[in-house]
Amino acid sequence: MELPVVDERGVQFVEGPPDQALMSSARDVDLVIEACFSGGVHCALLYAANMTAAFFDLSSGEAGAILQKLRNYWIRLAVVCPPGAADFSSRFGEMVAEELRGQHFGVFEARHDAIEWLRRA
Asked: Where does residue 23 rank: exposed (0-12), middle (13-18), buried (19+ CB within 10 A)?
């Protein structure tokens, strides 16, 4: 699946397809990295449906593997996850709160909030 580069009010990023699966395992993050390199961008906007089945369960290790690989390539990730779209483990919520202090990863209820966060790079 090809991820398009989107330019939203001067912010450029690759964007996953809303409501479609993209990653079935942590290794599939390479699709996002390749799309960023091909498009010359360092940001990605994905949706809860794009993430692996266990991404939001911190004990699975999938979030850590995906986020670490993106950090290694200096790619920022915003995930749009409206209420009810995914069940967060208790530790995942704690990790998100910590991550929002930095610039590498954030989870947002709406697409426009995710884009505003990406803008602040």
From this structure: buried
Q: Say which residue the tokens 């397809």 belong to.
A: 17
Assigned token pair, 117: 């966060």
- Mean pLDDT (whole number) for 13-42: 97
Of 58, 9, 53, 2, which is closest to residue 32 (Cα–Cα)?
2
Q: Cα torsion at 6, 18, 35, 32 (round to 10°)?
A: 130
Per-residue pLDDT tens over the stretch 63-105: 999 999 999 999 999 999 999 899 999 899 889 888 878 899 9
Neighbours of 28 (CB within 10 A): 16
C-beta separation of 107 from 66 below 8 A: no
Domains of the chain: 5-119 (3.30.750)
